[in-house]
## 1
Amino acid sequence: MAEMQELKRRAAEAALERVEDGMRLGIGTGSTAEAFIRLLAKRVEGGLGIVGVTTSERSEALCRELGVPTETLEAVPQLDLTVDGADEIDGRLRLIKGGGGALLREKIVAAASDRMLVIADASKQVDVLGDFPLPIEINGFGLIATFLAIQKASRAMGLDPDLTLRRVGEEPFITDSGHLILDAAYDRIEDPEALSAALHSVPGVVEHGLFLGLATEAILASADGVSILRP
């Protein structure tokens, strides 16, 4: 565990070198993003001037605690750079995100940014996406109908995912935007673009964790050092 935390810190440290004074910065969610926030706070304390837009209430609270200045996306609708983690990343910088439950806000912030820099330990890089269950954020209304529609759309593509409603204890997990999450175990997603379109065709789906065409660069940390992945 300590070794993994050190790899996350190294990736975050390398990402911080991309942050310039005056930047409008999207700030991600998750353990690697939190490592970045802690390092960013030290730079801010030393005089770095940035304004951050966070992707979750969790990251917002940590920024407030550490003195990182933040604004809403409404106040700062165009961003220079977003720094965020990933649950999986392939060689074309296609991602699965949403393990932390913030995928909708993460995708909105990434889309509002000129660049998206992914930070992760090297174990997150895969040849084919899908080993990590794909989070699908859905409206609470019509849960079962949406569940069945996702199954149908997936099976039409030759996929048969194991769908699980995410919970916290006995209660359903609720996102910061008030939605539910279905975690879809696909095993292998050979055509992420086609699956993305199929899921977006289901009315109850708010968003999914396939991030396609958003990441512009990735920093991956391993025991051998830090490597840069570009499309």
## 2
Amino acid sequence: MAVTVKAKTRQDLRGSVNNKLRREGRIPAVVYGKDKEPLAVSVDSLELLKTLRDEGKNAIISLDVEGDSPRQVMFHEYQIEPIRNELYHADFYIVDMSTEVDVQVPIHVEGTAQGVQDGGILSQPLHELSLRAKPNQIPDEIQVDVSNLEVGDSFLVSDLKEANNYEITEDESTAIVTILPPQTEEVVEPGETQDGDAEPEVINQKDDDEEEEE
């Protein structure tokens, strides 16, 4: 079910006007669509940020444009101001519920790997999975159970179970999770360097007795 976000059209696209919008708690946005003219709008920044955090970046949004009919949209991209952690700009694209779209879905790792219990280290090089699905069939996340992985094992994209409602477009050979061997610290014996060589002799170093005789 789509979440509703209210929007107002923008006529003046100058940067100074956009900055004024941001100070008022709104952000500039653009709505795109196939065979449709881009539409400049503004939306409430807190409302949209809450939608993004609660529903995720693949959420279907019913964009209720003031004075116009609602549009079913998804995030195309968005910018967050890093210092204040506030939305700065957003782009939406109009979706057709019967047409598949390419998206990135977050991966959620479940369980504790046997290899980790044995001292190994879990490495997760892939955090989002590329897939293709109709907008209302996009999963919230992809779950990966690593409980049976031992040291040296990897969970690949090809190990994921096939689904009927979406197509995985990620390279099948890509590792999602790998259990690395335990890290061991090399013990350096007294009088040796880390390379295993004896410490070099210090030339012209006098012992205490020689210093006293002088």
## 3
Amino acid sequence: MKRFQVFNFQLQPPRIRLLALVLAALFSFLLQSCYSFTGSSLSPETKTIQIRDFPNNSALMNPNLAQQFSTDIQNRFLQRTTLKGSTEVPDILIEGEITDYIISPTTISSTVNAPGGNIQAAQNKLTITVKVHYENRVEPDKSFDRTYSDEAVFSSDLDINAIEATQVKLVNERIINKIFNDIVANW
């Protein structure tokens, strides 16, 4: 049997395996106490969630925004966590409203050939703002009320249907990522 010499100690292979196993178990225990291997900071006792519809209370109306946002946020939580949907006394309640849906010019260009040099927008910006109420009945100290906002800049050549098909989806996804990370990842 071959012997290994480490710092003037002679360790035989069975002892090396035992030492490696003990170190791995200790490392795993220490790591698990400060980090969740699931990537979630939710308590293991948290089992159910209710996400109410987010009405669109902004001045500019996008007829599909409320339904699209509500469906997307519900899907995010139900698909990426082990939480089950519930309507009666859920462990987590998420509700809120869409408070702003704004399309505004960001870059101005002028047409050289036009008489008087007409000014037109070269790029527009879509901004969506969502107010969120998060209630955690298992860990009440983690509950919060926050406002989330994000934007996307796009060419002024896009028509309203293209904006709603692409830019709204992009901004919704970014806002939902922020909400999800604040609740599940607790970053």
